[in-house]
Design the sequence.
């Protein structure tokens, strides 16, 4: 038993680390460190840098432009990228719709959509959840009715992330009302410029319109945009949900945030002449998250080792989602604790591009509560943590 | 033993409930927040007419009685409705300090104005490096002839943008964290040398960072003896701490009620989500948290109104704040979780309740700070 990288893997790690240090633009790193979101253009620019290197899509098969890396190499890549703070690719194209197109799309669809995703020429968004179909996604009601060579789509989708930037949306739509709910769903690709689509931004607790409601009013979609067979969309969507299991735990980001907590604790006055890093109560909490992170990292490595010998990611990877998100939320609480009064001002604009006003609070302290609020989503989206626990009880424990 | 409210307390409670029902629904509140001052002057005048602004003050000061239990009853109702009017900074904090430290002359001038709703006040005590230690004051006050000159920077001064006057803590002698040497001065908000950077807070209120640069006030602007304000400041902040704990209890009850209600109507998998045992147990835990929070806040309020020692009282306050802090995290986070995505949005009241209790958790020291203070007392 050992958890060491091989000499080849260490060489690969060195190569990735140097690349990240040299190629991730310093101006982007500054923004990330200052808690400022990258713009759409900057996100695309970084993605294109990776594309030039041939590293845009580590998880894609080589024939579509993937890297052919082993699971361990993918892990090393994600870790090194996370440690410099570089953003993961926007998942909707690269990680979500592309695998479905590769697996179930026609040859024509593959040629039409995959190269633009690989090169980040087209921004995708997701049309899954509806106001009354959240955890129970299969009860979705948006309809697509066949009309000649087209479908006519009506209904609404919600929790649509960054649809305001998107060129295309992939949707689950109902094409048959007469069968069991999972059996009447189809997977449809829709151009966001099609007449009849409107977006209504939803402002979240941190003041940021990160998500939207998307309304479809007699939207005419060519039937050629249907993926695979009609009424098989649920099967395709489920494959998608189990497809991307790498880096689900967010360990690299958690490591980076742990370092930030330690750094900030050392610089935060305790009010009595010392700093928070030597405050025993806070030091204990910091130790707790560090220990949890160690356990999580090894749980992830064990999953990775199983993947490396060809085993499919099992339902136990729900552990990674639950622990990863709850650890991130525990860290959010520690950032709030360190910030104290400094996170009471509500100044989301201070962390937006081009803010000209006075900077309030030390470092990113004023962002701590905003992040705490926003990250409550982590245990809700992507299959809520209650749903993940159901999966463990049923599929792992056989209850 | 009797935990029921007196007739007077019941009337006070009903008075707030009636006002909220009639004039403070979530949409009206939204308009109030969007206004420049961040609160409604009209409401404030009404609060004065209803006698609410007299509640923190003793009979001797011309108030309702000044009992912590009375204040608790009212603050709980404020919490349920998320009232944003600056009752805490003006009446409880500033009013409390003037009452505790002011000369007869200062009290006679200021307290009636507060109770009549004619004076808005703010208390500037927190500094960038002070964290929750009230005695950590780097702001200085130097006597110059008949005047005193104040220099320093204060953070998160609640209601400073809407205040006519600011009470500021400043050090006249002693080392930076020493209790001796801290004074409090009453300064016009528009006095020369004061600059505000104002902003909304995470909990829909207004506050400011306030810079004092060679602000000159007459020595008569000092409340109490030179360098002798620390004890009164601690006592007033302790009372305010119990008041916001009671407000949190109201807000948490509100979060619990709304979550239970939502779980009965929100259907997934063809059944209300409240029928899932996993969620039922979480809501049962939320209920337990609310009950324990309410219990320890009642305990603290009753201690404050008793003849117990100062140390007993301070310990009861810290116990309440530490325990309420735990309840805030547990109930607040679960309320959002059970609501799902909709709980994450600006448009629903649940998120605003969550943000208010999060701010209360920080205000006057978070749970860890108070647990440590409890242990040290």
Sequence:
């Amino acid at each position: 038993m050992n958890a060491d990288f091989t000499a080849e893997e260490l060489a690969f790690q060195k190569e990735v680390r140097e690349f990240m240090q040299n190629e991730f633009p310093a101006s982007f790193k500054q923004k990330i460190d200052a808690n400022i979101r990258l713009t759409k253009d900057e996100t695309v620019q970084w993605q294109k840098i990776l594309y030039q290197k041939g590293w845009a899509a580590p998880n894609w098969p080589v024939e579509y432009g993937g890297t052919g890396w082993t699971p361990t190499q993918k892990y090393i890549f994600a870790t090194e990228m996370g440690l410099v703070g570089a953003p993961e690719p926007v998942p909707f194209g690269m990680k979500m719709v592309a695998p479905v197109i590769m697996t179930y799309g026609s040859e024509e669809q593959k040629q039409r959509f995959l190269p633009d995703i690989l090169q980040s020429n087209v921004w995708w968004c997701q049309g899954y959840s509806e106001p009354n179909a959240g955890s129970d996604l299969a009860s979705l009601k948006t309809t697509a009715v066949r009309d000649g060579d087209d479908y006519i789509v009506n209904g609404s989708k919600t929790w649509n992330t960054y649809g305001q930037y998107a060129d295309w949306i992939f949707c689950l739509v109902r094409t048959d009302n007469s069968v069991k709910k999972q059996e009447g769903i189809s997977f449809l690709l829709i151009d966001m410029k099609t007449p009849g689509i409107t977006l209504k931004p939803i402002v979240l607790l941190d003041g940021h319109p990160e998500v939207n409601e998307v309304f479809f009013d007699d939207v005419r979609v060519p039937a050629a945009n249907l993926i695979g067979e009609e009424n098989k969309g649920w099967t395709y969507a489920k494959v998608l949900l189990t497809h991307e299991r790498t880096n689900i735990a967010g360990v690299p980001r958690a490591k980076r945030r742990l370092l930030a907590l330690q750094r900030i604790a050392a610089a935060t006055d305790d009010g009595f002449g010392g700093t928070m890093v030597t405050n025993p109560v806070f030091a204990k909490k910091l130790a707790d998250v560090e220990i949890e992170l160690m356990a999580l990292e090894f749980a992830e490595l064990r999953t990775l080792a199983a993947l490396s010998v060809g085993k499919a990611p099992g339902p136990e990877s729900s552990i990674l989602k639950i622990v990863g998100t709850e650890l991130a939320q525990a860290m959010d609480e520690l950032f709030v604790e360190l910030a104290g009064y400094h996170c009471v001002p509500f100044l989301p604009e201070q962390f937006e591009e081009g803010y000209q006003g006075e900077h309030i609070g030390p470092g990113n302290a004023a962002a701590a509560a905003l992040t705490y609020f926003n990250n409550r989503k982590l245990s809700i989206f992507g299959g809520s943590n209650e749903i993940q626990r159901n999966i463990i009880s049923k599929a792992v424990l056989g209850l | 033993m009797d935990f029921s409210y007196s007739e007077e307390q019941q009337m006070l409670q009903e008075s707030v409930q009636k006002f909220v029902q009639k004039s403070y629904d979530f949409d009206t509140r939204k308009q109030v927040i969007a206004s420049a001052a961040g609160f409604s002057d009209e409401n404030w005048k009404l609060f004065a007419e209803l006698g609410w602004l007299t509640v923190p003050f003793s009979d001797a000061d011309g108030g309702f009685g000044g009992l912590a239990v009375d204040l608790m009853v009212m603050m709980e109702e404020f919490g349920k409705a998320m009232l944003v009017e600056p009752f805490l900074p003006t009446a409880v904090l500033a009013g409390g300090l003037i009452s505790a430290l002011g000369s007869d002359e200062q009290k006679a001038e200021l307290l009636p104005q507060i109770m009549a709703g004619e004076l808005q006040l703010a208390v500037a005590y927190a500094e960038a490096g002070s964290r929750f230690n009230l005695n950590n004051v780097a702001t200085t006050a130097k006597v110059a002839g008949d005047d005193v000159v104040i220099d320093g920077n204060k953070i998160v001064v609640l209601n400073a943008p809407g205040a006519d006057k600011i009470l500021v803590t400043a050090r006249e002698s002693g080392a930076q964290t020493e209790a001796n040497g801290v004074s409090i001065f009453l300064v016009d908000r528009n006095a020369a040398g004061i600059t505000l950077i104002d902003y909304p807070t995470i909990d829909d209120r207004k506050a400011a960072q306030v810079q004092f640069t060679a602000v000159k006030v007459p020595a008569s602007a000092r409340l109490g003896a030179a360098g002798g304000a620390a004890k009164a400041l601690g006592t007033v902040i302790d009372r305010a701490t119990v008041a916001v704990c009671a407000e949190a209890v109201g807000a948490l009850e509100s979060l619990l009620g709304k979550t239970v209600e939502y779980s009965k109507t929100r259907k997934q998998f063809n059944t209300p989500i409240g029928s899932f045992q996993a969620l039922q147990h979480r809501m049962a835990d939320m209920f337990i948290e609310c009950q324990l929070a309410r219990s320890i806040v009642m305990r603290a309020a009753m201690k404050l109104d008793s003849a117990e020692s100062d140390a007993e009282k301070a310990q009861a306050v810290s116990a309440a704040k530490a325990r309420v802090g735990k309840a805030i995290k547990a109930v607040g986070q679960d309320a959002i979780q059970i609501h799902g995505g909709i709980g994450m949005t600006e448009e629903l009241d649940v998120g605003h309740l969550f943000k208010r209790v999060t701010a209360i958790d920080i205000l006057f020291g978070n749970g860890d700070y108070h647990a440590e203070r409890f242990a040290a007392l």
Chain B touches chain A through 50 residues (CB under 8 Å). The CA atoms of residues 45 and 191 of chain B lie 26 Å apart.
